[in-house]
Amino acid sequence: MSELTLQAKELDAADALAPVRSRFLLDDVVYLDGNSLGALPAHVPDRIADVVRREWGELRIRSWEESGWWTAPERIGDRIAPLVGAAPGQVVVGDSTSVNVFKAVVAAARMAGEERTEILVDATTFPTDGYIAESAARLTGRTLRAVTPAEVPHALGPRTAAVLLNHVDYRTGRLHDLPSLTAAIHAAGALAVWDLCHSAGALPVGLDAHGVDLAVGCTYKYLNGGPGSPAFLYVRRELQPRFDSPLPGWNSHAEPFGMQPSYDPAPGAVRGRVGTPDILSMLSLEAALEVWEGVGIDAVRAKSLALTDFFLSCVAHYAGDRVESVTPTAHGERGSQVSLRCENAGDVMKRLIEAGVVGDFRPPDVLRFGFTPLYTSFAEAERAARVLGAVLG
Amino acid sequence: MSELTLQAKELDAADALAPVRSRFLLDDVVYLDGNSLGALPAHVPDRIADVVRREWGELRIRSWEESGWWTAPERIGDRIAPLVGAAPGQVVVGDSTSVNVFKAVVAAARMAGEERTEILVDATTFPTDGYIAESAARLTGRTLRAVTPAEVPHALGPRTAAVLLNHVDYRTGRLHDLPSLTAAIHAAGALAVWDLCHSAGALPVGLDAHGVDLAVGCTYKYLNGGPGSPAFLYVRRELQPRFDSPLPGWNSHAEPFGMQPSYDPAPGAVRGRVGTPDILSMLSLEAALEVWEGVGIDAVRAKSLALTDFFLSCVAHYAGDRVESVTPTAHGERGSQVSLRCENAGDVMKRLIEAGVVGDFRPPDVLRFGFTPLYTSFAEAERAARVLGAVLG
């Protein structure tokens, strides 16, 4: 047994989260792509079968009330809230991340007022945020400017309406400084909109504590909600009365079954709803969130950093200088993934997958390995690095 | 056996669609709410179990390609297309109806040009269409005017950008004249956007034949996709190159995995996509569409009219003048539901449901009974009317 194998064994033995792995259905593949699609929680199949056969098949229309379908978006939002540091009543689930980015950026621009004519967006963002922010700017008569997160403090000014930033960079895994960037944005009188796709469920976010204005996040990555499970929208409580949605669907009406011709928005997080929620995807997410029972986000963060530290050590040992990490080594700047740059990265990832190590490839040259502390072991981190070394030859 | 019971028996015996009922999981409840939530097709539970356990649980991220998840929105769109009279490549599935109304109305206004400053909306519409159209008008600098479908021809003019109409009125069940209204809208140089929520899967629509510009529709009513299954968007082929989406998410990019910072829209129906599709709800819909194997929409329409004719006769017999039908008697003006007005309608519906006849109540005084020819029998129509008569006392 090599020294690293032994070390992995010891780390796993000391890992308080190790038993949580049994809450998932896994096999002997090393699955390091939970930052793209989380693994299947073990109890979800039975829950979904019940939703389909009994709630839909037997109760049918009655389930909107009797099975709690109608209130699922805000109920599940409240289940996610503590994982992102939000008190109840501020998070609602529904629609895709892109649609929620649209709601958030348009609403933020409107709250900022007409005289603030510019929206800033993270130039290194996952593309959809940039495309949607451009549309939001166009429709609200603002201009959009792309700047790197580091440039944000200098780009802010009296014309800035809102800033859309990613908490963790999807490509490099860099964690941005949410507290200080939010403070800088507020100092300029603008609104901070955070995209938490790569941080929700992976590390503490502290939305309330840091006074974030609006946030959106993905639920099928570190929250394991299933393929395309609906995203979430956070609107800080004090801003909710001024949240003026560009998608004022009937689900956000104060009296949705009153069938009123005029729109009267509901109070609270419900105002972020739009149309009929996709119940199967939504209740899969709700069931998936049960794996968090008794698990604190701080413990998850501690294990995440230990896992990525250990993986980086193993990579240094097995792959040496044939790869270059683009993920920051400083803990305060690292999300829950490690991104490695290498030659022929697309081909390398194919061979890794064939060898039972699943990460993903992001053009032009990045291998991404996501670490989900709920189910990833140190032994897997070591094995992944070892296989990578072998694949690189 | 009463005369009506006997007649129902004969009608059922002669019904070529009667065997299709066995493709659904039903019980002895008379379910006349398929216009709100379609019943569960019998093979859907096994299909969803496979999607969850194998496609998500075992293949995980690989399923986006290997299980055809990525292309599901346009593949399922093409499966719906023939049911609404559309050639392939013009329908895409995803997001809620409300979100698709937003895409369609904004895109229509943009195609109409800046000099056309007014959007017309059906004043009798299901409320969400009006709320969303108001938002679309506000964001594109247009004014919104609510007119009844009958008033549309006179309200049209050189300033009209687009008209959003319902094919079937959700409350009364009235079928509007899509061909002639579309022709009138086109004669005024405006674009016709049709909401097919209460017609798709219930009657022939003829989108291509009548030159409809854009359309949206619901899949959890007569298409039985399951609670909150994603809606569909139709963009006529000739208009697709000019379809300028207000929700240009990464799924609508020409090269979605190129991760380009600039937006370059995909050609075709895919341009109507936004974010990651909700796979569980979407594949439930895909499976549900298999019940249409060998079933033509014309046969469905013929049975629908026979069912509602027969139900109206039975209601006249059992309930007499204690109810008043607000659904047109002329076939050309009737959708696939019967709406009856009566005193204390909310209470009457509660008692009907207790007695095993499920319809729904729409304020202030309407009982709705939806007829889904794929699984509703004439015997059920007779029984529903008989129970209604008894409940009314």
Largest interface: A-B, 80 and 80 residues
Could you say what the CATH topology of the largest domain in chain A is called?
Answer: Aspartate Aminotransferase, domain 2
- Any idea what the shape of chain A is? globular
The CATH superfamily of the largest domain in chain A appears as Type I PLP-dependent aspartate aminotransferase-like (Major domain)
Q: Largest sheet of chain A, described in full?
A: 7 strands, mixed
What is the percent of helical residues of chain A? 25-40%
Strand order of the largest sheet of chain A: 2-8-7-6-5-3-4
In whole angstroms, how far apart are the ends of chain A? 21 Å
| CATH domain class of the largest domain in chain A | Alpha Beta
- What is the quaternary state of this protein? homodimer
**Backbone structural class of chain A:** alpha/beta
> Which CATH-level-2 architecture of the largest domain in chain A?
3-Layer(aba) Sandwich
Total number of helical segments of chain A? 12
Q: How many domains of chain A? A: 2
Give me the Rg of chain A, rounded: 22 Å
β-sheet strand percentage of chain A? 5-15%
Number of strands of chain A: 13
GO biological process, one term (chains A, B): NAD+ biosynthetic process
Binding site for pyridoxal 5'-phosphate (chains A, B): 97-98, 126-129, 195, 198, 220, 250, 276
Function (chains A, B): Catalyzes the cleavage of L-kynurenine (L-Kyn) and L-3-hydroxykynurenine (L-3OHKyn) into anthranilic acid (AA) and 3-hydroxyanthranilic acid (3-OHAA), respectively.
Pathway (chains A, B): Cofactor biosynthesis; NAD(+) biosynthesis; quinolinate from L-kynurenine: step 2/3; Amino-acid degradation; L-kynurenine degradation; L-alanine and anthranilate from L-kynurenine: step 1/1
